[in-house]
Amino acid sequence: MKKDKKEHNSETEMKQPEENIENMEEQENEEISAPVENEETEKLKAENAKLKDDYLRAYAELENTKKRCMQEMEKTSKYAISSFAKDILSVADNLHRALTAAEELKGSECEQLKKGVELTESELSKVLAKFGIVKMEPMGKVFDPAFHQVVQEVEDKSKPAGTVVAELQTGYMIKDRILREAMVVVSR
């Protein structure tokens, strides 16, 4: 029996090295494939992160472009009438001059003409106001180069220096922008 045990042990010992060799080979294969898989996974993760970053940047750029376009469209529609309005202001100026000249004339026919010109000027002012075009009121205010163009300076001790004392040409605003500066006379 002892002999049988010895034979059995020697067979087991012989089998174990073979199994050990197979186990070692599997472990080596796993160790080799594990770093390769880890490297590939890391590369894919890095590529994924880069693509995600690129996507987010492109999306943000698209949103910014949309906002800029919307602002430009709003600005364009808000101020599209500017060039037309500048041209029509000369008509308003001529109506105002006609009223000033008509004040000096007397007679019933002149009064009717004056009334007609006043109505026309009033209607023009309403139409301009409808589109956000309003007159500036510089009289008595301090000179501001953003809104006024000085044509002349006069000596006036009753008012502080730089105060608008006369308006030679009316200034106009369109919404929150200057359409035309007012031509003014200021005190020294």
Give the arrangement of secondary structure elements:
Blueprint: H1 2-79, H2 82-104, H3 108-130, E1 133-135, E2 148-154, E3 164-169, E4 172-174, E5 177-180, E6 182-187
Parallel strand pairs: 2-6
Antiparallel strand pairs: 1-4, 3-6, 4-5
Helix pairs in contact: 2-3
Question: How does this model look, in words?
Answer:
It is a single chain. It is built from 3 helices and 6 strands, in the order αααββββββ. The protein is an alpha+beta fold and about 190 residues long. It folds into 3 domains: about 80 residues; about 50 residues; about 55 residues, Nucleotide Exchange Factor Grpe, Chain A, domain 2 (Roll). The longest helix is centred in the first third of the chain and has 78 residues. It is elongated, with a radius of gyration of 45 Å. The mean pLDDT is about 85.
Shape, principal axes of CA atoms: elongated
Strand content: 15-25%
Distance N to C terminus: 135 Å
Give, in spatial order, the strands making up the sheet with the most strands.
Answer: 1-4-5
> What composes the largest sheet?
3 strands, antiparallel
Number of strands: 6
Q: Report the uncertain regions.
A: none
Can you summarize this structure?
The chain has 188 residues and is of the alpha+beta class. It has helices spanning 2-79, 82-104, 108-130, and strands spanning 133-135, 148-154, 164-169, 172-174, 177-180, 182-187. It folds into 3 domains: 1-79; 81-131; 133-188, Nucleotide Exchange Factor Grpe, Chain A, domain 2, CATH 2.30.22.10.
